[in-house]
Amino acid sequence: MSILGGGIFKGMAVTLRNFVGSYFYKERLTTNDYEWRPDGALPQSIGDYPKEEGEQLSDTTTVNHYSRNFPMLLHDTGEPMDTIRCVACKICERECPPQCIYIEKSTEKIENADGKPQFYPAKFDIDVSVCMSCQICVEVCPFDAIVMNSQFELSTPDRFGGLLVRRDDLLKSNDYYHKIHPQEAATRDQKMADDKAAKEAKKKAAAEKAKAAAEAKAKAEAENESKEDAE
Amino acid sequence: MSFELIKDILIATVPLLVIFPSLFAFTTWMERKALARIQNRIGPNKTGIPCTRIGLFGLGQPAADGIKMIFKEDIVPRGADRLFHLLAPILALIPAMLILCFLPLEFPWGKFMSAPVQAFLLDSAVIFFFAISGLTTLAIFMAGWASRNKYSLLGGMRAVAQMVSYEIPLVLSAVVVVMMVGSLNAKEIADAQTGFNWFVFTPWGLAAFVIFFIAALAETNRSPFDLPEAESEIIAGYFTEYSGFKFALFFLGEYIAMFAISGLAVTLFLGAGDGPFLTSAPWLSVVWFIVKIFGLIAVMIWLRGTLPRLRVDQLMAFAWKFLLPISIFNILLAGLSHFALDARVAATSDAILYSIHAPHTHSGAVNHAPPKLVAGQKEAVMGALHYTDKNWVGAMEWFFKAALKGHVQSRSILAWWFGIWAMGLTVLYVMAKGLDNVSRSEVKPREYLYAE
Description:
The complex is a heterodimer of chains A (231) and B (452).
Chain A: H1 6-24, E1 71-75, H2 91-95, E2 101-105, E3 110-111, E4 117-118, E5 121-127, H3 136-140, E6 146-148, E7 164-165, H4 167-170, E8 171-173, H5 174-180, H6 182-230
Parallel strand pairs in A: 1-8
Antiparallel strand pairs in A: 1-6, 2-5, 3-4, 5-7
Helix pairs in contact in A: 5-6
Chain B: H1 3-38, H2 61-71, H3 82-100, H4 125-133, H5 135-146, H6 150-181, H7 186-192, H8 203-219, H9 231-234, H10 244-268, H11 284-306, H12 312-361, H13 377-388, H14 392-404, H15 408-439
Helix pairs in contact in B: 1-10, 1-11, 2-10, 3-4, 3-5, 3-10, 5-6, 6-8, 6-12, 8-10, 8-12, 10-11, 12-13, 12-15, 13-14, 14-15
């Protein structure tokens, strides 16, 4: 038996705490109170906006480490198309709730960062006017190829073409990812490394097992042969 | 028409037409700011003095909004009924402005002029209030119908269903106060509560105030009862097809209705213009009134930032299966307990007063000894006198003093008082809890057409 209307008061206490807390604790605010374009003086700390004149159009515009806006494609260090992680498996296209991703698979394979021949997206478009920033594509991607960007100054005079972001504009380096979401990028890299190690260990184990099996088989065969010889 | 009459009319109406729309502008800013803070955002903070970078906490926002609204294109859908599409926002605003006249507001400058303090000193102000505020429903449905848009129509129909349902508990909760005062006149209701005899300080008044406030939220389409304009379900409900100044009129009408209904709640339950320091500065009464209105509006905004929207079936079940029975029960309880307490205290007060006067009035030779002073007798008499003036709070204060000094009759009065408070609240709570258990609408789990 709970108190009648107790949930309402509980909820009101939570909102009151937010209301009061947002005046006293700056870190509560989900957005920065960014200043007008600075007249000479540069902001001091990381995340201040904007750091330099014109920088709001470049890639490093980010509000804070937790802001997410629209997806981007990742590539490892090197030429973007040589080290692209995406293999055009189209899982994200299929899972996207508002269907804002369009992918065309390449016909031939090229070598990826690991030197393995893989397919790559000949076309990878995201319509950011349709995207609802749900981050489902990020969660379903098995290759850690798509993650969320935090660039927010996306206004454009072109209503249709300007909001359709193409593959080459979506491609960002892993270093950039580390810059905007350091924690998340570190965990993701760690996870990828672990996966890779686990995979290799498994492969190694399997190879050893196969080797052992082969040896055993060879031994058995040899025994058989010796038996036959004996007979 | 004489000059005096015109002057009186202007003095009575202009404050309403000037003060409340400007309060509306301030309230929109306050609402945006409060909601932003509740969601850990900053809210409007850049729109201050034009052409400068002085933000003024975004206080220029209402002015900027107003200018934008005036210059925006007024779009009328091709299939719409042009006349009614135009009329609806006007008709939504008029009743909202009209009902402001029934509030017992005493503007300070009324003291120095021959003007009436109220626009309408009606004997049936409360009834008129409900009758005229009911007209808003019509305007909203007119907007929904004339827009020729399915979302507008759905919103209009939801509004009609909701407002008709919630008007009943609204009126029934006000009945309690009308019963106590014995008058429908807003001024008399206000006068009955002077000296902190607010009706919200009685168990039935408290319950009625809560019911009234909930029903008022639904009447003014405020969250969590904002189904007629639920943006996640039906775009913007009845004002989907409104833009520019017509939209602004609707918006204004809605906020004025909020002020009016909060004003009525203040009049009925929160003592109207009653407050501290009134003897030294009577003009404070209008300030207290508006402060109380703003207090209620702040709670409305707070609730909007807290609660999610109800479903349609929950909305209807809540009105008919919960609020209606409990408001009727509250009337019954108020009648019984109030008159029980009244009879008890009246009898005891009479006894107290009689015990003072009796030795003097009796001329029998036997009883010539001077009256023996019982402990706390003086205080008890003061309480009894206050009670005959219907100043319940003052009476209880004196009875309490007498009881502390060991006066037995005052103790029995206080015991009755506390007993009735406890009993009233307990009975109301148990009733509400029971109704809540009965009236919760059950939801069947959804059957999916395409099984996974």
